[in-house]
Design a protein that fits this description.
It is built from seven helices and 23 strands. By secondary structure, it is of the alpha+beta class. The strands form seven sheets. Strands 4-5-6-12-8-7 form a six-stranded antiparallel β-barrel. A four-stranded mixed beta sheet has the order 1-18-17-23.
Length: 362
């Protein structure tokens, strides 16, 4: 069963992990992307937009035309070439006014497809309620929807799409790095990694320059030489290398039978027995006719079911102390276990306290 071994990523036999740059492990607190959203209309659809049953689309069309000096009663709007959409975007860090970004458009009503449509001018606001960007442009949908005579053919989701470079930053979010302490936020909080980052910064800037506040944050004092050049300080800190300490973890995917295990995963002494119960149900037709003395009756066809159960035992695998996932894979391979069997067995080992690792099921 080579499939079992191929489905497990074993890192116990590889070389020790190489040092990792600080820029891969941390983010600077306050330096982040900003989520934007807005409500808009996509026009130019070929009969695939919202129907008259979507009242807010009719009201939006009436309101838009009203601002252009055309008065239309929302109840009189009958157009299948318009769709109400939500527009979302992520404004990059330090984006300046005039910078462009991609926006995502998603239908809110019952529009079948946004293919070939154009997004009208849409303000995008952030969490502070202020408008930070505007969006407009042709929509590129990643699928299609075709219907004819009650049949439908659909690929991907045509009710959503993107407008490449359709967003323009109007009011940027300026991050003031200042001259005070800079806080590095760990992407994966860990006591050991935070302490090692603080030690690496002390080695580069001098003793007492950094302090690990908690497993998720390291505070760095800005030296006098970098008071007016915090960007240069951060560029220097990002290039520092440390030995990152990771938690032992096993990631399982029951849908695909995939198991990914890190090098720090260890197994305690345990015995594993895994078998399968197979149940087969078969039906065969039986013809029943009335007897020769019966005065009336009809010939009927009645199915008769036959139930067969068979339990397959694959034996017991004994795991000694200090075993690794590689040892477990070899033992279960001898028993004829499949990758999906390994997923169930690892979950059972974790429940029994024999697996020293965090188990994450996808």
């Amino acid at each position: 069963m080579r499939t079992l071994l191929l489905s497990v990523l074993l890192l116990s036999s590889v070389a020790p992990a190489a040092p990792v740059r600080v820029r891969e492990l941390t983010n600077v607190v306050g330096v982040r992307d900003n989520e934007l959203f807005g409500y808009g209309l996509v026009v130019g659809l070929t009969g695939t937009g919202d129907t008259e049953r979507v009242f807010f689309t009719s009201q939006s069309i009436s309101g838009m035309l009203g601002r252009l000096g055309i008065r239309v009663d929302p109840a009189m709007v009958r157009s299948r070439n318009v769709a109400a959409v939500m527009v979302t975007a992520r404004m990059p860090t330090f984006a300046r006014a005039g910078a462009h970004m991609d926006v995502t458009v998603s239908a809110m009503g019952n529009a079948r497809s946004l293919q070939g449509g154009t997004l009208l001018f849409t303000p995008l606001q952030g969490a502070d309620g202020e408008v930070h960007a505007v969006a407009q442009g042709p929509v590129q949908a990643g699928g299609f929807n075709a219907q004819s005579a009650g049949s439908m053919l659909q690929m991907n989701s045509p009710a959503s799409g993107r407008v490449p470079a359709g967003g323009t930053v109007e009011r940027p979010v300026v991050v003031d790095l200042g001259q005070g302490p800079v806080t590095l936020s760990l992407k994966s909080p860990d006591f050991t990694t935070a302490s090692r980052i603080a030690q690496a910064v002390d080695g580069a800037l001098g003793a007492g320059s950094a302090k690990a506040l908690d497993p998720a944050a390291v505070e760095v004092k800005v030296p006098e030489a970098f008071k007016d050049n915090v960007v240069g300080l951060l560029a220097q800190l990002e290039q520092l290398e440390v030995d990152a300490a990771g938690r032992a973890k096993v990631v399982l995917s029951e849908r695909t039978g995939t198991v990914v295990a890190g090098e720090d995963v260890r197994l305690r002494p345990a015995a594993v027995s895994h078998g399968g119960l197979q149940i087969a149900v078969q039906q065969r037709p039986v013809v029943s006719q009335p007897g020769p003395l019966a005065r009336a009756g009809n010939t009927v066809n009645q199915p008769v079911s036959t139930l067969t159960a068979r339990e397959e035992s694959r034996g017991v695998a004994a795991l000694p102390a200090a075993s690794t996932v590689q040892d477990l894979a070899k033992a279960l391979n001898a028993l004829g276990a499949t990758p999906r069997d390994l997923v169930s067995i690892l979950q059972a080992l974790k429940a029994a306290g024999a697996l020293d690792a965090d188990v994450e099921v996808m």
